Amino acid sequence: MKQLITRLDQLLEYLIISIMAVLVIDVLWQVASRFILGDPSSFTDELARFLLIWLSLFGGAYMLGKKMHLAIDLISHKFDERKALRYDNFIQVTILVFAIAVLVIGGSRLVFVTLFLNQTSAALGVPLGYVYMVLPLSGLIMCTYCVHFILENLATSRSLNNNTQNSGE
Fold first, then answer.
1. Could you give the 3-state DSSP secondary structure of residue 120?
2. Angle between helices 44-65 and 2-31 (to 10 degrees)
3. pLDDT at residue 168 in the model
4. What is the pLDDT of residue 76?
5. CB-side exposure of 101: number of CA atoms within 13 Å?
6. Which end of the chain is more exposed for a tag (fewer CB within 10 A), N or C?
7. Cα separations (Å) of 52 from 38, 60, 89, 90?
8. 8 A C-beta contact, residue 87 and residue 79
9. Where are the beta strands (DSSP E) in the chain?
10. What is the mean pLDDT of each run of 10 residues along the chain (169 residues)?
């Protein structure tokens, strides 16, 4: 599982860097075409919007994988190690349920509906289902990270239980 997480981290890093690079070039072209050429490009605003959506969702998944996402850790510092692991598992299960319900299931339905209705973007003419594909993809990545953290917490908890039993003998 650790090898999968390492590969997933690397893939997300390259993907996020690539999206950010394209976004910077797109916005620079938008500014240059508007103020230097005097003829604003018609597609750059829409492309920037779509890239920002992808950057935000993949970035959120990456931050979840690094455990750098927003969290309220006021309570967890007061717990002993076992309770902290249970608390972290509760948080991971909550994130997992949200990711499955909203991002994977809801996002998949959105992708299906927009592809079924053949909705396309105004300037680029791209099927919107492809743009919204980031919802279930990022949701699946978040689910993978959550399952990984839950399994790690369970292994640590078992290790703590074994150490307690061995020291009690």
1. strand
2. 150
3. 57
4. 79
5. 6
6. C
7. 25, 12, 31, 30
8. yes
9. none
10. 96 98 97 91 94 98 92 80 93 97 98 98 96 98 98 94 71
SS3 call for 127: strand
User: What is the C-alpha separation between 113 and 116, in angstroms, rounded?
Assistant: 5
Output the pLDDT for position 4.
96
Q: b/e string for 17-51 if b means 16 or more Cβ within 10 A?
A: eebeeebeebbebbeeeeeeeeeebebbebbbebb
pTM reported for the whole predicted model: 0.92
Tokens at residue 16, please? Answer: 């996020």
Dihedral (C-alpha) 41, 47, 48, 49: value to the nearest 10 degrees? 120
Distance CA 116, CA 114 (A): 5
* Identity of the amino acid at 37: L
Retrieve residue 144's tokens: 């993978």
Q: d(Cα 81, Cα 91) in Å, to the nearest integer? A: 15
Spell out the residues 6+ positions from residue 46 whose beta carbon is closer than 8 angstroms to its own: 121, 122, 123, 124
